[in-house]
């Protein structure tokens, strides 16, 4: 199987109607808080699509500078600093 066949497009979505700026950071982008901006749709939800290889990833949203877990994620992990990360299995 080719490497590109093992990758999946994953849509990250957050409903934060009052936000001015939202980014996505996680284990898939070295937790860079400015690399993956989300775009706001007409209903006030924010969205971005990321292509990921199969695996388990941790991530958080950065909403107007404040780190937040994904409220729609059912699986979370606590890291050594007591931060709560959302978990995604691809």
Report what the structure shows.
It is a single chain. The chain is mostly beta strands and 90 residues long. The chain has a single domain (3-89), classed as Immunoglobulins (Immunoglobulin-like, Sandwich). Helix content is 0%, strand content 52%. The protein contains no helices and 9 strands. Strands 2, 3, 6, 7, 8 and 9 form a 6-stranded antiparallel sheet that branches. The model has no long low-confidence stretch (mean pLDDT 88).
What is the topology?
Blueprint: E1 7-15, E2 22-26, E3 36-37, E4 39-40, E5 45-53, E6 56-63, E7 66-68, E8 76-78, E9 84-89
Antiparallel strand pairs: 1-5, 2-3, 2-6, 4-5, 6-7, 6-9, 8-9
Short description:
This protein has a single domain, classed as Immunoglobulins (Immunoglobulin-like, Sandwich), CATH 2.60.40. The chain contains no helices and nine strands.
Q: Structural class of the secondary elements?
A: mainly beta
Which word captures the global form? globular
Biggest sheet descriptor: 6 strands, antiparallel
CATH superfamily, please?
Immunoglobulins
Average pLDDT score:
88
The helix/strand series, from N terminus to C terminus, equals EEEEEEEEE
Q: What is the count of structural domains?
A: 1
Report the C-alpha radius of gyration, rounded. 13 Å
- Under the CATH scheme, which class? Mainly Beta
State the share of residues found in helices, binned by percent. under 10%
Number of helical elements: 0
């Amino acid at each position: 199987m080719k490497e590109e066949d093992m990758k999946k497009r994953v849509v990250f979505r957050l409903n934060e109607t009052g936000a001015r700026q939202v980014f996505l950071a996680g284990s898939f982008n070295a937790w860079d808080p400015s690399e993956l901006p989300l775009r706001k749709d007409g209903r006030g939800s924010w969205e971005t699509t990321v292509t990921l290889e199969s695996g388990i990833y941790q991530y958080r949203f950065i909403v107007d500078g404040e780190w937040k877990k994904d409220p729609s994620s059912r699986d979370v992990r606590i890291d050594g600093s007591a931060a709560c990360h959302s978990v995604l299995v691809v």
